[in-house]
Design brief:
Blueprint (H helix, E strand, L loop, with lengths): L18 H7 L24 H4 L3 H11 L4 H11 L2 E11 L4 E10 L4 E7 L5 E6 L5 H14 L3 H12 L2 E10 L6 E9 L4 E7 L5 E6 L1 H8 L2
Antiparallel strand pairs: 1-2, 1-5, 2-3, 3-4, 5-6, 6-7, 7-8
Length: 225
């Protein structure tokens, strides 16, 4: 939903990398992984209405989580079955061309390449998968390999820790490096039971929650009350 993503977590290098594309096309709400792609956007069994696609970040989070039928761990398991390897991120998002609600999962495969897997958020069907390839595949593989080397807990424990800190629903997670000290961390986006979006940072080495804060979108709303 965020980042890249509908919003930018801090930091959030691995998750989808589509925020810049959204800015260029003037889009609002969730980042669209297909905005600059001529290929057909995947059509899932769940679609958001046109009005829901253009809500602000937190309001769209609420709409997407309400419509979602597949949890982050179910979506990740489906992606890993399609592409064996390690999930480095997962995000609940919409394909803006048709409002389809999907999970975008990044997998660093056993073939040492990055794969994007699209999962139907309604029934868990694999809608699309492709390998990220460019002129420097070795360099592309080096970043996730370095992050995975520093990851000792896995996304399951990281999201569990985030939910202990902020009870609610996981909307995204991503394995990343901390800008302050270079440590490997998980950035987890949780739509809390308080109906606010929270950004939670979890140490990937030991599982400690390093930081958690309400998303800026909600803080602005609160300031106006």
């Amino acid at each position: 939903m965020k980042a890249t993503a509908k919003r930018t977590l801090t930091p959030r290098a691995i998750v989808l990398g589509t925020a810049a594309a959204v800015a260029l096309i003037g889009g609002t709400g969730a980042a669209n992984a297909f905005a600059d792609d001529d290929s057909p956007a995947p059509k899932s069994s769940v679609q958001l209405s046109p009005s829901e696609r253009h809500l602000d970040d937190t309001a769209q989070d609420r709409a997407q989580v309400k419509a979602d039928k597949v949890s982050y761990d179910e979506a990740t398991a489906k992606a890993l079955k399609a592409v064996p390897g390690t999930a480095t991120s997962a995000e609940l998002d919409t394909a803006d061309r048709n409002g389809s609600l999907i999970w975008e999962v990044d997998v660093f495969g056993k073939d040492h390449t990055n794969h994007d897997v699209t999962i139907d958020a309604g029934d868990g069907t694999v809608l699309n998968k492709h390998t990220d390839r460019d002129d420097d595949a070795a360099e592309d593989a080096a970043e996730p390999q370095a992050l995975l080397k520093g990851d000792k807990i896995g996304h399951g424990k990281a999201t569990d820790q985030a939910l202990k800190a902020v009870p609610g629903t996981v909307a995204s997670f991503s394995l990343d490096d901390n800008d302050r000290n270079g440590a490997t961390v998980y950035e987890v986006d949780v739509l809390g039971k308080d109906h606010k979006s929270h950004d939670v940072t979890v140490d990937a080495a030991g599982g400690k929650v390093l930081n958690q804060h309400v998303d800026q979108d909600d803080r602005d709303d609160n300031d106006g009350d």
